[in-house]
Protein 1
Amino acid sequence: MSAPQRHLLGLKGAEEKTIREILALAVRYKAERKTLSWRPLAGQTWALIFTKSSTRTRVSFEVAIRELGGNALFLNANDLQLGRGEPIKDTARVLGRMVHGAIIRTYAQSDVEEFARYAKIPTVNALTDDEHPCQILADIQTIEEKLGPITGKKIAFIGDCACNVARSWIYAAEILKFNLVLAGPNGYLSPVTNSHVTQTHDVKEAARVADVLYTDVWVSMGMETEKAKRAAAFQGYQINHELVALAQKHALVLHCLPAYREQEISEKIFEERAPEIFDQAENRLHVQKGVLHWLTELPVDA
């Protein structure tokens, strides 16, 4: 009997072994980008199915696929019959016979899961309303290359603690055993938690002696009608000099981008910490390679 098809549909329920294998691959792909000759996707075509717009996710996956020897086929909602109401499972069964893998960026987590079930090809969650697993893997790579192992570290997430990025951080905290403190206003804390997570409305307490200060936009895609309401609610939940002063001296400031300066992060802090923020963005490419290689189930020297 063949082994079950590998997917990366989220960090919920993921094994530490899986995360460590992907990160080890990502680290090596970054270190040896100019010399590494691995081509685990040689002769393969991978579909990128995006119903949400993207810069970093699309570019990092397309470059990763090509540098791993494969071909990338980008499809948005208007390119597919999904835009006219074809069921996900029918699209999945067609693409599953034509391409070798799929990377999906969309709204509903259930759509990614249903696609994987019916397509029977490796499937990656490149963002849903529930999770953003590849982003958090790149974040962890960034933290560990600058501060060492994340286990035992204090990560402070400031802002919308109910968003997809925060939720993936929550799952990662349980797997890798670090301390995650989520700080957000009333009505914007996460419904998901575990023993490694603390939630608070006190942004200063969250930042105190933190190893990492992390934030995301206040208004995620699909929530534009709430812009004014959210702008009012999140006043005081900005990463700025006052907040950074409470963290460890070695603390990183990270942002998954795009950033709205003078909202979730001050202009001065963003520019001062741009080197680490854009290292974080670059690591999306290396992690995507790690994910794609891991999905092929090839050995690390393949």
Protein 2
Amino acid sequence: MNFKSLRIKIIGSVVLSSFLLSNGSLPVRADEVSIQNLLRNRIESAGKPAKIFVDQEPVYSAIVLPIFYERRVYRPGWDSEAGLSPRIESLLEFIRQAEQHGLRSADYHLAKIEMILSDLARIQESRQPPNPRLLVDLDLLLSDAFLILGSHLLAGRIDPQTVDPQWHVNRREGDLAELLATAIDSNQVGDALRSLLPAQPEYEQLTAALARYRTITENGGWPAVAAGPKLQQGDRGPRVAALKQRLALENFLENVSPTDEDLFDDDVDQALRKFQMQNGLEVDGVLGRQTLQALNISAQARVRQLLVNLERWRWLPRYLGPRYLLVNIAGFHLEVVENSQLVMEMRVIAGRPYRQTPVFSGSMTYLVFNPSWTVPDKIARKDILPKIKKDPAFAVKQKIKVFKGWGASTVAIDPLEMDWRAVSAHNFRYRFKQDPGPLNALGRVKFMFPNQFDVYLHDTPARELFGKTRRDFSSGCIRIEKPLELTEYLLQNHPDWTPAKIRSTLEADLPVEQTVKLPAPVPVHILYWTVWIGKDGQIYFGQDIYGRDKVLDAALKQPPPGA
């Protein structure tokens, strides 16, 4: 069978494919039946899951790729009656753009595909029919490239639970074999891949930030500011000059005057405060130890941080809901979003590093006014028991009741009559329950979205902790800054709960525990981002409080897993 001509342009080291019809026809491939049989034999003999290599290069999509070819009865996917398809160039163009999304073009057989295309161009010039096995190799690599890249865009390059056992968000799913077939039939390969990208504007903003920080890195990054005493407005010296240069390179400072390049003036003060705000630091305009440490994080390290967080975006569900709560653990921040608009935000307190808040999505269905607190056994043994052993009156002062036994055999015990010296974390057989009221650890209200981790949002009497910049003080649950405002928002359409009734219930002299069902469930997404885009459109860097970035970054450097 004869097919139309294939023209390959080679610009530099990159092979650009251009597939044009001409008046003459050239035998650019073998008979389709022959290729079809070769594909079938190659895949059927590869086992399950398939182990296929092109020379020494593995085909990664061991499960989905055979499904794709089985559905099309092993017909090749990347040729046409006019010869090799222009769909190839659409795919290659997208692969070359993979770096923009924090992925690696090399993971998708780019060099090997370009080498085969170059070989085919030389064969065409000799007017000889190509080896059909070469065309089979090309078809397999192109299909695998689409499927692997598609899987990375759809659900992330790394399975989150292999690197982060605390990540339990439902990832996006799709039939990639069907998507590839549709993309080929409709000649919409690029559009099909683009449809898999996270739709939220924050993702696109992070890709723009990645490009900016890569440019800074390629231009040499920024210089480190030398260690030394604190610097603040009015100071002078070479360290101030280095500070100004550093702030300017990240666009925090403009118009550096050469006549006062070593003066810590008002412009530097304002620029440093902005830097501190966008890096989760105390905003005081003083170059102290923590600010110096953040300033001296390299531009390359920021690039790696962006790559890690772009990957986390690809782990999220496609649709977060028309109205939802989003908690960023590492940013100590909560947002309420309705119809894509931010309607409320507040600071939060997350779990300590040794009692980490997990990442998951839930559905808030009810809240509890004036909650009592049945102390979890682990907290009872490790936190409350030592305080009671030191001072048995602690339980009385904090309105904590002590119980022994369960169900009908439960017995209340006077903590002042107990010999706590004989009780340890190992032989502890008691339960603690704190009464509702102003001392209760859960505050005036808790917000419930039932989950396997027994994690929820709640008020807290320790209001002073919200003034800290790093707020990882809880035992896993999330304490919120504005419980009353959130309550009124969630119950705004509840006919029985006006703002006045909510306030009177929470301010009662004799608080009574009361459960209130929400008018409609509200999705809650608890996430872990160390880089995010603020409502002002600026990029913010947080601390990796749980050490998760380093593990994920190492995984991203490994060869790609299968689709």
Protein 3
Amino acid sequence: MKYIKVIRVSGSYFAREFEKSAKSRKAKKIREVDEKTAAEQFIKGDATIRVVFEDLDREPIELSNESDEELIKRYLGPKFLGS
């Protein structure tokens, strides 16, 4: 599963990307999800999270449960470490 964490000046939120069939008008659909849901899937190793900086000109960061623990802690929080 693909999750996104959008970081803005006013706060952040998690969303899930759904890929639809090629016949549909919008190939990707995004729905907001709870942080707890994203953390559970991330710890299991079933998900990757792309961290998007909406108000900054920074490149998105792709994180998985095998990424550096310091990066996970900085961008996602200690809930995503699973310990």
Protein 4
Amino acid sequence: MSGTRTTCPYCGVGCGIRIGSDGAIAGDPDHPANRGRLCVKGAALGETLGDDNRLLHPMMGGARASWDAALDAAAAGLAETIAAHGPDAVAFYVSGQFLTEDYYIANKLMKGFIGSANIDTNSRLCMASTVAGHVRAFGADVVPGIYEDWDEADLAVLAGSNAAWCHPVLFQRLLAARATRGTRIVVIDPRRTASCEAADLHLPLAIGSDTALFAGLLVHLADRGALDSAWIAAHSTGFEAALAVARRDAGSIAAVAEATRLAPDLILRFYTEFAGTERSLTIFSQGINQSASGTDKVNAILNCHLATGRIGRPGMGPFSVTGQPNAMGGREVGGLATQLAAHMGFDQPEAIDRVRRFWQAPAVATRPGLKAVDLFEAVHDGRIKAIWIAATNPVVSMPRAGRVQDALARCPLVIVSDCWPTSTSGLAHILLPAAGWGEKDGTVTNSERRISRQRAFRAPPGEARPDWWMFAEMARRLGWGDRFAYAKPADIFREHAALSGFENEGARAFDIGGLAGLSDEDYDGLAPVRWPVAEARANARLFAGGGFFTADGRARFVATPPRPLAEGTGRARPLRLNTGRIRDQWHTMTRSGSVPRLMAHQEEPFLELSPSDAGKFDVGDGDLMRIETAHGTAILRARASSSVKPGELFAPMHWSADFSSAGPIGRLVGGAADPISGQPELKASAARLAPLPTLWRGLLLGPARPLGAQSFYWARLPVAGGQACTLRGWDPLPAADDLRALAAALLGAPGVALQDICDTERGSYRFARIEQGRLVGCLLIACQSAWPVPERESLVPLLGAEFDAAARGRFALMQRIAAAPTASRKICVCLSVSQAAIEGVIADGRAADPTEIGAVTGAGTSCGSCLPELEALLREARVQAALRPNPLAPLRRAR
């Protein structure tokens, strides 16, 4: 395929993509990260490129403005704030979806010239605990391994990582390794996730108990003679102290079992597997990081690999997988408030002086800034009076999301730059339209330290501009234009590379000084390259022979005493709420939520609870539940699932108030954070539940727009020709006239007479907005006596359809589909294969494994993201078959 080679803008796998001359999107078979494979989100990228909902022009106070007017006003506001209150009254909050060049300019402007370190990133919610753990153990934020280790491991331990859904392309490599070399897979997760379907062992430990599990493993390794004592002696310090603390707190299988609530035989089986398998790879992600003790959890894992010398060699080591496309690049430039630049920190006076001289920035910051949770608290209490938020949506993604919204509403100056309208952009005084994926050039760094190019293949719509350009223009208006005189991203990259190598000489892990002399042509054609890239050294894997970035070159073992969860449960709130991602959505859905087929797998938010808890609360699938924590309340539809244990709950983190009345799940999560990393505890909120009666159900089809605050539950998704909204009500329906007024408002036609057919005796109501003989939208509501409501898939083709002039004739088609069959959710969204279709081929004996399901239905034969769910459906079918009575049994007994 000819065309443009670029990189996917979703997770940290960093998949290569080729854009054909006809606009077709495909995986790049020559990119080492993915070898041509894409997940379903990546494969659907072409469906996100429409400009219908893009931010196209600068806005001030809700009115269109020129770029000069908007930037001049923003610069004046920042300058006045700094003059009156000092540089620490200003903050930037940026994003792992920035390109490295964007990140570099924003960080340089804030830390080098404004003179404050109050720039933090949404990667604080993602990878900060890993950064802190790496620095404590290795002396630098370095992932030692490479993706080939996933192919070459004999044991892969997924700790707090549902890679099957969150990093599906890498997970396919694990499945291939299992098929070719017999790689064994262990999953450590409180929930039974999709990754567990491929696992040889699942450890459903108690939420928050990972430190105890890995501390116990360290003790087991010592007691079973599985240590590499020579490696420990040559390349590390602190082992005896770390082991002593582990022995005190997790010195026996029984103690670990008590802390983790795991069966002792499961713990011993895992420990034995790890001790006896040299090629052991521990893959960890948000289940480890998003914790008030996340840094200790990371170090507990690193301790086990350091103790066995299993690091920096093929098929072994600790491997952190990042959640965002350029979380690693942001860490490289210093995008976190606790970093300076180029892996240099504020704890080193010589580093501060080095950066000052390189940037020629006499006002360079000299101390760390506020981390994300503290930063928004400072906005709330007025210490920060001006904030620029770029490429992220904290009103949805942050913990205590309602408090973040309130903080921004009271802030004197809020600047937002983004591609689409979001819950955050609605609070902006100055709104700047940003160029998005496919529209700007730069680099990103993936989870294995590999730098890849993102290349433009389409023009930005309207007046959208790259983020780096906005920050450079702001610097010029604030008086520092000579230090930000960049004409193109290549200029920025060369400076970034030069800073990484400046006075380095092997002292710092991050070094791409060998790329500082790239010509524009070389930058344009830059092939994926893994750092370090320096004239004197380049190595794929790190630390096999020591060479750590500490003062003495040795790794540090870190004692990790278990810590309690930030919130305790009790009679008032006896349950634990866990949050996380689902397969086909991305962050707050501003991109992925616009694609109908990506909504087909999970159409609305849900609250997952165990079957026993569902029985305790007397709720069935789809019933409404009110969930309450100390921080907020939401109403969600219940889903009984054996994936969660009794006493635990799970809700996805993606839905915002634009997509559901439940709003951001971040409203329910507290701000308690790890004292070292500042990463908040997003997976262990104390909660209580109360069921709500469902007195009526509804379906709204019409123009695409959020419904806003309502006294009923709603969730919307895009469909051809508009949107569909599922409705559920716990209060009685209003009187007919009030219901007509509500219908008109929901259909975007207040005061307009609607066509309606209302059967008040049965509790069935149908309203339609028809203009020029075509159906613009319809609302169908049914009380319990009139269920079911016609299904969405049967009604969507009606949008825009012509109807004859007679009023009742217009409703003939709707009347004919009153008994429409229940729709089945899509398991394979690539090929639109439903759960019902897959269950059918299993039930009639045509498929007994995923390959056979694929041969019959096509499911699993495209991106492979649904393969774990095919395994789950097969497993469930086997369980049901075992429970089903044998019809021949009575005859046999009679004999």
